[in-house]
């Protein structure tokens, strides 16, 4: 690394490409989407056991 440069953290590099709100929404949508998929899967599993 050249002497005049500040080390750039990974977080700062990500935030320079994507706004913080977008990252938070993306993580929230992924989490909620997986929870919903698990719930639907659970419904199918429990429905198959009742037959």
What does this molecule look like?
This protein is mainly alpha-helical. It has helices at 10-17, 20-49. The model has no long low-confidence stretch (mean pLDDT 84). Keywords: Membrane, Transmembrane, Transmembrane helix. The chain crosses the membrane at residues 26-48. This is DUF6126 family protein. Pfam families: DUF6126.
Summarize the structure.
The protein is mostly helical.
Helix content: over 70%
User: How much strand content do the residues show?
Assistant: under 5%
Q: Helical stretch count? A: 2
What is the chain-wise order of helices and strands?
HH
Average pLDDT metric? 84
The value of Rg in angstroms is 21 Å
Oligomer: single chain
Structural class: mainly alpha
Terminus-to-terminus distance: 66 Å
Overall outline: rod-shaped
**How many distinct beta strands?**
0
């Amino acid at each position: 690394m050249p002497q005049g440069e500040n080390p750039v953290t990974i977080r700062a590099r990500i935030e320079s490409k994507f706004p913080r709100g977008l990252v938070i929404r993306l993580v929230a949508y992924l989490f909620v989407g997986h929870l919903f998929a698990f719930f639907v899967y659970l419904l199918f599993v429990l429905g198959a056991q009742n037959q």
